[in-house]
Amino acid sequence: MGAIETPASAARPYAWYFEPLRWLLLGLAHLPLAVLYLFSEVIYLLLAYGVRYRWRVVTENLRNSFPEKTPAEIERIGKAFYRHFSQVVVEILKLAAMPPDELRQRLRFTNPELMTRHFADKRLVLSLGSHMGNWEWILSGAALEFPGRAAGVYKPLNNQFFEHFMRRLRTRLGADAVPMLATLRYLVAHRGQGHTLSLLTDQAAGPEDKPYWTQFLHQDTSFYTSADRLAAQLDCAVLYVGIRRVRRGYYEVTFTELPDGRVAKVAPAGTFPVTEAFARQLEADMRASPEQYLWTHRRWKHKR
Question: What is the pLDDT of residue 123?
Fold first, then answer.
């Protein structure tokens, strides 16, 4: 079954009774995407009309983010989000068995030269992404587009089985998966080698994180500032990673240059030019394709 399997003689990192679930997930992952999309329609109907998964959170987020839209428009975007989310669920599962050539066909980098130019200068590149489109495909696609140079930061899961399964899923095509607490150590180890590290930078930062606050989609919004600090400390180039679904199962990724470490290093105290530029790029993408963002997340749970 490929790289996601573990030799039978090796000690399992999870309890034995998860084995049937592993084989079930692997079996589903080997189905064609066309078949998996039939399952996604069932998931969509269940989430949007059955259990109405986090419907209150979704509609509240949409109403506050787009106060100019009518209740009917909010309802339409919400339902479109659930369909998109259901498709992303099966697309992520498919990564456990997707052939490299198929992913190359389905995920296209429109301007990879922005990345390779920094690699030629042997600079570290912080690739700042979000929960837009299919965020899991980006890292695996980057591993194919830039062999041996792509890694992504992730927060380890508490469940040992899903931690093992998702880590293997993310790394089977050549990417490195870096636990959040090992971010700085990983960057230092790859300094001067022409390497990129992907960070999902759109999560809600709490008071203990000393966040940067800015107006974002009509709301006071907190952002983590690690991108500014890391870029300044290690002289990193910084790229915004925008992803757009062209049609079902096909995406385009476009890089945009953001202020780099040299700018962040001389920025006045209390300002975060990298994070602010990221917020403006993400806001524009969310306005253009609101149904492609992960609205089930309680993004605005913290207050200034």
Answer: 97
The alpha carbon torsion through 149, 289, 93, 298 (nearest 10 deg) reads 100
On the CB side of 283, how many CA atoms lie within 13 Å of its CA? 16
Q: Is 88 helix (H, G, I), strand (E, B) or coil?
A: helix
Mean per-residue pLDDT of the chain = 95
The length of the chain in residues reads 304
CB atoms within 10 A of CB 12: 14
- Residues 142, 108: Cα–Cα separation, whole Å: 10
- How far is CA 142 from each of CA 51, 155, 258, rounded to the nearest angstrom? 36, 19, 19
For residue 223, what pLDDT is reported?
A: 97
Look at residue 2 and tell me whether its pLDDT is greater than 50: no
DSSP code of residue 131: S
pLDDT at 75 over 80: yes
* Residue 53 to residue 83: CA distance in whole angstroms: 12
Check if the beta carbon of residue 164 is closer than 8 Å to that of residue 14. yes
pTM: 0.93
63 has pLDDT over 70: yes
* Residue in this structure with the two tokens 């979000």, named with its chain if needed: 130
- Residues whose CB is less than 8 angstroms from the CB of residue 8 and which lie 6 or more positions away in sequence, other chains included: none
Condensed to tens digits (0 to 9), the pLDDT of residues 111-136 reads: 999 999 999 999 999 999 999 999 99
DSSP letter at 146? S
User: Rounded to whole angstroms, how far apart are CA atoms 138 and 158?
Assistant: 24
Residue 228 near residue 264 (C-beta atoms within 8 A): yes
CA 175 to CA 160: how far, in whole Å?
Answer: 20
